[in-house]
């Protein structure tokens, strides 16, 4: 590829990554509201965010992602109550996920679909860690939103083969997790099953190898963390550890490097 044609594309990708990261900061600020309110069954729109200590409404200047937390030194402007460091961490995590997805997917029609998955994935992972459940209010609409956004991408890129594969992936991963739930009902929840269908939709869109990689990575990560927790005395074999974060992390890793992992596996095994 000639340098004069290669450089503009590099600049485009860099600009896309930066723009996605900035968008992720803004979305992450909203996700903090989602994480706090959805498990309680509250509206994410009203009332506006307030300090839980003094009830003062958060001013717009104090709601700038990450920067406001730093300028306020992690405390409410009115009462001085500490503001959890998780707020800027969620914003930075979302920015990082968005930037990585922009790098992996590139300037293509399916990027909005994957950015949506990144946003809902951050929220679901945080909620599962907090409450050990994956709320239907986030999981079920993701079937519709993901299906519609990927359908739009299929129309634009004439990628109907990928779309059909995505739908089959949805059914396949849902059925696999449903079977696991039936076999080991005390280890797998129905929330995990419903999330599996969403992840199957996206991973199937990218390919069968990526789908397989995402499924395997979830269990590998879960096993590694579980063993580490037991070794540190923080869990036992009967401890219930939320599996949603491992499913989501495994899916993200598969989206980023699943193709490379599959090619490497094939080169090692000769398959």
List the main descriptive attributes of the protein structure presented here.
271 residues, single chain, mainly alpha
Question: Layout of helices and strands, plus pairs?
Answer:
Elements: H1 3-37, H2 67-71, H3 86-105, H4 111-131, H5 136-157, H6 160-183, H7 190-206, H8 208-231, H9 244-269
Question: Can you describe this structure?
Answer:
By secondary structure, the chain is mainly alpha-helical. Helices cover 72% and strands 0% of the residues. It is built from 9 helices and no strands. Helix 5 (136-157) packs parallel to helix 7 (190-206) and helix 6 (160-183) packs antiparallel against helix 7. The model has no long low-confidence stretch (mean pLDDT 91).
Main beta sheet: none
Q: Which whole number gives the mean pLDDT?
A: 91
Write the H/E string, N to C: HHHHHHHHH
Oligomer: single chain
The stretches of 5 or more residues where confidence is low (pLDDT under 50) are none
Q: Based on helices, strands and strand pairing, what is the structural class?
A: mainly alpha
Question: Terminal Cα separation, in Å?
Answer: 31 Å
Strand content: under 5%
Characterize the overall form: globular
Given the structure, what is the number of helices? Answer: 9
Give the beta-strand count. 0
Instruction: Provide the gyration radius in Å.
Output: 20 Å
Share of helix, binned: over 70%
């Amino acid at each position: 590829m000639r340098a004069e044609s290669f450089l503009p594309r590099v600049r485009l990708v860099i600009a896309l990554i930066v723009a996605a990261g900035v968008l992720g900061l803004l979305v992450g600020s909203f996700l903090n509201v989602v994480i706090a309110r959805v498990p309680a069954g509250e509206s994410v729109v009203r009332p506006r965010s307030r300090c839980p200590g003094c009830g003062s409404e958060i001013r717009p200047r104090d709601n700038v992602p990450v920067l406001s937390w730093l300028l306020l030194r992690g405390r409410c402007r009115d009462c001085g109550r500490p503001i959890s460091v998780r707020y800027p961490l969620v914003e930075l995590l979302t920015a990082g996920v968005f930037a990585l997805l922009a790098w992996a997917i590139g300037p293509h029609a399916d990027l909005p679909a994957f950015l949506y998955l990144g946003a809902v994935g951050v929220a679901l992972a945080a909620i599962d860690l907090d409450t050990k459940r994956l709320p239907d209010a986030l999981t079920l609409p993701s079937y519709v939103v993901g299906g519609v956004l990927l359908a739009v991408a299929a129309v634009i890129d004439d990628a109907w083969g990928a779309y059909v594969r995505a739908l089959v992936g949805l059914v396949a991963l849902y059925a696999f997790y449903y079977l696991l739930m039936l076999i080991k009902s005390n280890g797998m929840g129905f929330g995990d099953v419903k999330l599996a269908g969403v992840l199957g939709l996206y991973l199937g869109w990218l390919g069968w190898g990526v789908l397989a990689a995402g499924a395997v990575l979830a269990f590998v990560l879960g096993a590694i963390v579980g063993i580490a927790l037991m070794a540190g005395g923080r869990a036992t074999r009967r401890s219930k550890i939320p599996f949603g974060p491992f499913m989501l992390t495994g899916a993200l890793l598969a989206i980023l490097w699943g193709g490379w992992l599959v090619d490497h596996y094939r080169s090692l095994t000769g398959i």
